[in-house]
Structure formats: structure tokens, C-alpha cells
Design a protein that fits this description.
Elements (H helix, E strand, L loop, with lengths): L1 H10 L9 H14 L3 E7 L3 E7 L5 E2 L6 H7 L3 E3 L12 H4 L6 E9 L2 E10 L7 H23 L6 H10 L3 E6 L4 E4 L1 H6 L11 H6 L6 H13 L5 E8 L5 E13 L5 E10 L1 H30 L2 H15 L4 E9 L5 E8 L6 H11 L4 E2 L7 H6 L3 E3 L21 E8 L2 E9 L7 H6 L1 H32 L9 H8 L9 E8 L2 H8 L1 H18 L5 E6 L2 E6 L4 H14 L2 E3 L2 E3 L3 E8 L8 H17 L5 E3 L2 H7 L1
Parallel strand pairs: 23-24
Antiparallel strand pairs: 1-2, 1-6, 2-3, 4-5, 5-6, 7-8, 7-11, 9-10, 10-11, 12-13, 12-17, 13-14, 15-16, 16-17, 18-20, 18-23, 19-20, 21-22
């Protein structure tokens, strides 16, 4: 068998002294393409030698140690992920000594229908090769086998027609470019990557360049120019090309110049191209997931710091549109109106104003006042149904009601509900992705929905806490019967009057003969009298003034008024002018008022003394017959104390 293999090796000029500079370049491209440190083409004869290699200094090894002899014998690919753990290879000299092979992947090299060696990848670290990449390596093996066959048949020279025939039969995407003539040849597999027929492909570069994505074309041109300018450089570039069906395919092109003229100028470049869309999508998903996680964390951090969910939504909104590859959209929270109807309060919104009316709507959003009140439409269906709404043909969706006149065309729509349990509390609306929205898009954004659920829930908890605190504070500071501030609230708030620069008035108001009212009519009527007096006092005073029930039938008063006497006299008359209508009939009520004017000094230490002065003035009003206003006079106060 070895002799027969040697016949084929000799026939196809594969001995170790063969000149295979072009193959060396191709093998270097393969190493770069698969991102492995070592690649080679081996021949199995009486020894193993390498007719092309990259990343390896060894030229010949013994047949006994050759990994590739197993590929030739098995006539099938061989992959060893960690040779140091493999029972058949762990004691191999190439494993225990230099180059200390750990990973090996080889596919058969064929000459004359006979396996004569292998095309292989090696690593001195354990590694893996996906099934898809292994199939691609096999395709390269077939290509190299055909290339070697033509070398043998042409005595080392390749005519353009021969090369075109070779790449046509290769099982990889091959592109050959005669640079001077700008003549491009592509094989069937290259066409299939893009959904093209061979007769649809033109030979000029402008054709394939027209298929390259606009965002990727500048980088691709730079990479090709750099490769042509630097002999020995490898072209290895990733970019997008438009498929015949309209979508974008990510491809990797790897190759190099394989022929130069006598002045070293490049004449011909050969490249292999493969579809890397799946890997690229996985990479992009991973990048997007990291980006999504980052801006979700920022949104949570801002909310915890500011308790402002609108700012949190605005912070992430532009990145959300970018990640979702959408032209415009919004984030909204469900609000239940007093009528029981639901509307959507908008936390974040794209500015797609197209008229004076929609400009005003956007300004309302900027003021934090924009609500979408009508939910009988496509986006409202997300709220009413509680499910994902995906409409890649919005006009045909049963919930669609069209768009207002002048609205930018709605080409595609994705609505995602934000739910707490079974209740839909908000939604994200996205529109006009270049390609159709998919279930994968909805699934990808699910963690963001969970984050917004947490923020919405935290907001409701915070609102409930604040409401509870306000209620407790109200109960602690409010007189239950009259609904006026109580003595505690009066003492806390009176301090604010001392911070102003103008004179103000402190007064104590007492209902005359209130005990007699209780004794004659009962406490129910007494309570009704207290409520009516409190109402008249608070109705007569200004919003900046302070009125409080100090206890029993006494009320405390602070007036932002340097002319307090006319105000207090008018207040006294207002109480006495009309009887109080109670459950027992009319009750005539009068009040006595004691007051003191205060010149604030910015210090609140004297408030008790000032309040006592007003109380002493009230004492004088009662002693002088009640139903009157008396002011604190220092000399009188001194004689009384």
C-alpha cells in the first residue's frame, strides 16, 4: 500500500523538495482563517513531510509519530481535542516533546483518488473545532487536492481557464481576481452563499462591491488595498453582503496574492469565503446583552438615587432603539383615570413630530404631561390583550386603525407588555426595524421588561409609602373634629413666621361661654359649633395665614399682616353676624380675641413668650366683657405678671 501511495506522490510531484510557495501562502491563510497557530499540508510516504506549512519549523517527522497517517489510513477526518489525554496519542513524541501538540484536526489530501496525506490544524493548547468548521476544512481539503492535481497536470503552471475550472468544482466559496484586467471568477458555492445563479454574476469588481453593505464597504476597501500594498500580508476581513432575497449575510473572506509580476506588483489574488452569519449573530447577541445589562443597571441606579422613573426611561431610550434596530418608539405606564378608563402616561418618546399639533404633543411629553388616552389601536392592543403584539405588516393587523395624516410610514411594529403578575402596567412600543421583528427580538428584550416591572413596582411602593407618611403626618398634625391643624402643627409652623422680615400678628381666639352651649344643647351641638367657627375662620383668612385648633374652644392664629387690628375686628364680627345652625336650631356665638404684634429677629426662641402675650391679651378681653379684640401692651403685661 505504501508503494502504491508513493507512486501517486511521485506522479503529482509531492516529494519534499517540491516548490510550493503558493501553497505556503494558502496554508498561512487557512491558519489565519481558523485562528489556529499552526496549519500544514502533510504527505505520508516513507516519512511524513510537509509540502506547505505555517507556524511550524519542522519539515519531516517519522511515520510512527505522524498524526496524519491515521487520517490517510482511516480515509476520513480526525479531530483530537486534547492529545495529552488521548490513550492512543498521549505518549506520542510530538505530544511529550516539541512542538507538544495538544489539539489536532486533519482531513484527507487526495491525489489520483488516493489519500496521500492531510490538510490539518494544530495547537499546543487543548482546543475545539465545531462540526461546521470541520466541514469547511474538508471543503478546503478538496480544493487543495484539486489545486495539486492541476499543478501536476500543468507541470507547475496554471492557465486562467484551468484555474476557473478548478474553483468551479471546489466545495468552498472561492473568489479569484485577475487584478490587472479586473476579471473576477466565482464558483458555484460562492454564488449559493448569496442566493445567486452563476449566470447572474458579473466579472467586474463593481458587481460584487455593489452587494457589500454601505457601512462595511470602506473598511473592506482599506483591507484589500493594504493587502495589495504589502507582500506576504494576509487578507482576513468580515463584512455583510446582500442576499438575493434581500437580507444581509455576514461573510468572512480570507486569502492573499498568489502571483506577482517581475516588479513585484500583484497580478492575481485568491480568496475563500464562508458564511459566518450564525457566529456573527451570536457575537452581536452577546455584545447586545452586555450593552443591555449595562444600561439596565444605569436605569436602576438612577431610579434608586432620584426615585424618578421618567429620567430612568429617558436615560436608556436611545440605546434601546439602537439595540432593537428600530427607528422610533416609546415607553409608557398604564394610569387609571378617575372615570375608571385606562390611559398610557409616556415616560420616553421619539420626536417624530410632523405637524403643529404633534409638536405640541411632544412639548407636552417634555413637560411630563403626555397621555395616550385612546387604546383602540395597534399599540393599545398590547395593553388590552396583555400580550406581545408583533406586526410586520401593520395594515393587515386586526387592531390597526391606520396612522394619522402626515405620520411617518409605520412599516413594522413590536409592542411588549410590562406586567406585574397578570396585570399589564406599561409597555414598550418599537417601530420600523429594517428587517422583520422576530420572537427572538421579543425574547432578547425580556430582561429589560423585568427591570421596568421592578422599577414600576418600586415606584408604586414608594408612592404608597409617601401616601402613608402623608396620612400619618396629617393625622398627627390635624384636629379630627375641625380638620384644622392642631396645637403641635401650630407650634411647628409658627417658626416660619420668624424667618420673615416684616411684622406679623399672633392671636388666640376663644369661643365665648362655650361650656354653657355644651351644658344647654349637649356635646353634639358643641361639636357642630366648633366645626362652623373653624370653617368661618379658615374661609375668612388668606392662604398664607395660619389658623389652628389649640384645644377645647381655643384657636391659634398667625397673620402675615402688619395691620392686624382691622383684620381681627372684621373676623370677630364675621363670627357674631350670623347664628350657627345646629341640629338643635340656631345658636348665637361670639368670640374673644387676644393678639400680639411680633417684630421677627430671625430667632424663634421667643415664640412661647409671644404666644403667652397673646394669651394675656385674651384674658383681658374676657375680663372686659368678651366679644372683643384686645392687644398685648407691655406695661399691662408687666402689671399682670
Amino acid at each position: 500500500m505504501l508503494n502504491k501511495r508513493w507512486q501517486y506522490i511521485s506522479q503529482y510531484k509531492l516529494t519534499h523538495d517540491v516548490d510550493t510557495d503558493a501553497l505556503d501562502k494558502l496554508v498561512a491563510s487557512i491558519a489565519d482563517f481558523f485562528e489556529f497557530p499552526i496549519a500544514m499540508i502533510s504527505i505520508i510516504g516513507q516519512q511524513q513531510w510537509f509540502i506547505a506549512k505555517a507556524g511550524l519549523n519542522v519539515d519531516i517527522t517519522s511515520l510512527e509519530d505522524a498524526f496524519c497517517r491515521h487520517v490517510a489510513s482511516l480515509r476520513s477526518p480526525l479531530v483530537i481535542e486534547d492529545a495529552s489525554l488521548h490513550p492512543d496519542f498521549r505518549d506520542n513524541l510530538l505530544v511529550v516533546a516539541k512542538p507538544k501538540i495538544r489539539f489536532y484536526a486533519g482531513v484527507p489530501l487526495i491525489a489520483g483518488g488516493r489519500e496521500v496525506g492531510a490538510v490539518c490544524l494544530l495547537d499546543n493548547q487543548p482546543n475545539k473545532l465545531s462540526p461546521k468548521d470541520l466541514r469547511f476544512l474538508e471543503s478546503l481539503g478538496y480544493f487543495i487536492s484539486g489545486y495539486i492535481r492541476l499543478i501536476g497536470e500543468q507541470g507547475g503552471g496554471l492557465r486562467g481557464a484551468d484555474f476557473a475550472t478548478m474553483i468551479e468544482s471546489a466545495d468552498v466559496g472561492v473568489w479569484d481576481w485577475e487584478i490587472v484586467n479586473d476579471y473576477n471568477v466565482f464558483n458555484q458555492h460562492w454564488c449559493e452563499l448569496l442566493g445567486l445563479r452563476l449566470d447572474e454574476v458579473e466579472s467586474r469588481s463593481r458587481f460584487w462591491k455593489s452587494l457589500v453593505h454601505d457601512e462595511d464597504a470602506p473598511q473592506l476597501n482599506r483591507e484589500i488595498s493594504a493587502h495589495l500594498a504589502e507582500e506576504g500580508a494576509v487578507l482576513n476581513v468580515e463584512y455583510r453582503m446582500r442576499h438575493a432575497q434581500g437580507h444581509w449575510v455576514w461573510v468572512n473572506t480570507c486569502g492573499r496574492v498568489v502571483a506577482n509580476d517581475s516588479n513585484g506588483r500583484p497580478l492575481r489574488m485568491t480568496c475563500v469565503t464562508r458564511d459566518i452569519s450564525e457566529r456573527k449573530r451570536a457575537e452581536l447577541r452577546e455584545q447586545k446583552q452586555v450593552q443591555l445589562l449595562n444600561f439596565m443597571n444605569r436605569a436602576q441606579s438612577v431610579f434608586l438615587h432620584e426615585k424618578n422613573i421618567r429620567h430612568s426611561c429617558e436615560l436608556i431610550f436611545d440605546e434601546l432603539l439602537s439595540l432593537a434596530e428600530s427607528q422610533f418608539g416609546f415607553i409608557g405606564q398604564v394610569v387609571v383615570q378617575e372615570t375608571g378608563e385606562k390611559s398610557l402616561f409616556i415616560h420616553a418618546l421619539s420626536n417624530i413630530s410632523w405637524s403643529a399639533e404633534t409638536n405640541e404633543q411632544y412639548r407636552a411629553y417634555q413637560r411630563g404631561e403626555l397621555f395616550f388616552n385612546s387604546l383602540d389601536n395597534l399599540f393599545g392592543h398590547v395593553i388590552t390583550s396583555g400580550g406581545v403584539v408583533m406586526a410586520n405588516q401593520p395594515r393587515h393587523h386586526h387592531a390597526s386603525r391606520g396612522t394619522p395624516a402626515g405620520h411617518p410610514p409605520l412599516l413594522r411594529f413590536l409592542g411588549l407588555p410590562i406586567k406585574i403578575g397578570d396585570e399589564t402596567v406599561g409597555m414598550i412600543g418599537l417601530a420600523n426595524k429594517e428587517e422583520d421583528y422576530t420572537d427572538e427580538d421579543a425574547q432578547f428584550l425580556h430582561p429589560l421588561l423585568d427591570t421596568l416591572v421592578a422599577l414600576f413596582y418600586a415606584l408604586e411602593v414608594e408612592k404608597s409609602r409617601l401616601n402613608a407618611e402623608q396620612k400619618l403626618r396629617y393625622l398627627a398634625e390635624t384636629d379630627v373634629l375641625t380638620k384644622l391643624p392642631n396645637r403641635r402643627a401650630f407650634i411647628e409652623r409658627v417658626h416660619g413666621f420668624y424667618s420673615q422680615s416684616s411684622v406679623f400678628t399672633i392671636a388666640i381666639i376663644d369661643i365665648d361661654y362655650f361650656k354653657s352651649i355644651n351644658d344647654k344643647y349637649g356635646h353634639q351641638v358643641g361639636d357642630e359649633v366648633l366645626q362652623e367657627v373653624a370653617f368661618r375662620l379658615s374661609s375668612y383668612l388668606r392662604s398664607d395665614d395660619l389658623i389652628a385648633r389649640m384645644g377645647g374652644e381655643e384657636f391659634g392664629l398667625c397673620l402675615y399682616d402688619t395691620q392686624g387690628a382691622p383684620t381681627l375686628e372684621a373676623l370677630r364680627k364675621a363670627i357674631a353676624a350670623e347664628p350657627v345652625w345646629t341640629s338643635e336650631g340656631e345658636v348665637y356665638v361670639t368670640v374673644s380675641i387676644g393678639a400680639s404684634q411680633v417684630v421677627p429677629s430671625g430667632c424663634t426662641d421667643h415664640w412661647e413668650a409671644d404666644l403667652r402675650h397673646a394669651d394675656l391679651a385674651l384674658y383681658r378681653a374676657k375680663n372686659e366683657g368678651r366679644n372683643r379684640v384686645k392687644w398685648h401692651i407691655p406695661s399691662v403685661m408687666t402689671s399682670l405678671t
